[in-house]
Amino acid sequence: RDWSSDVCSSDLEKSYMDLDDKKPLVTNIANSRKVMQVSLSLMTQYDERVFKNVEKHRAALRSAALDVLRQVQEGDLVKPEARSQLAQRLRDQINLELERLEGFGGIEEVFFTEFVFQ
């Protein structure tokens, strides 16, 4: 049997795009004097339209991501699952914004390519 003809979702090509365009997101930690600086990469298995929409609405998506980051409490960041939960919240908010602007989200995962808080 030729298994190469069987296509399942795990076989679809994953594509990545940086959200920050070489400008990291920087925000204060909620109720703290500390700041957080992150760079994000977005992943999709959909076609190039998803990233065309990201490019088109980069300012709105960066703003939406900053809204999520501004809500982070310092105590949240010390939990083992903090980064993965934050990545999920960022993905959900970015998809909501894309759905509002274009009718479709399409971002399946958000990755931190830089993560600093001090």
Structure description:
Strand 2 and strand 3 (35-44) form a beta hairpin. The N and C termini lie far apart (56 Å). It is globular and about 40 Å long. 35% of the residues lie in helices and 23% in strands. Residues 1-9 have low confidence and may be disordered. The protein has helices at residues 49-56, 58-69, 82-102, and strands at residues 15-18, 25-28, 35-44, 109-117. By secondary structure, it is of the alpha+beta class. Helix 2 (58-69) runs antiparallel to helix 3 (82-102). It contains three helices and four strands. Strands 1, 2, 3 and 4 form a four-stranded antiparallel sheet that branches.
Compressed to H and E, one letter per element, the order equals: EEEHHHE
Distance, first to last CA: 56 Å
Judging from the principal axes of the Cα atoms, what is the shape? globular
- What amount of the residues lies in strands? 15-25%
What kind of sheet is the major sheet?
Answer: 4 strands, antiparallel
DSSP helix count? 3
> What is the helix fraction of residues, given as a range?
25-40%
Mean pLDDT: 90
| Radius of gyration, in angstroms, nearest whole number | 16 Å
Count every beta strand, where a strand is a DSSP E run of 2 or more residues.
4
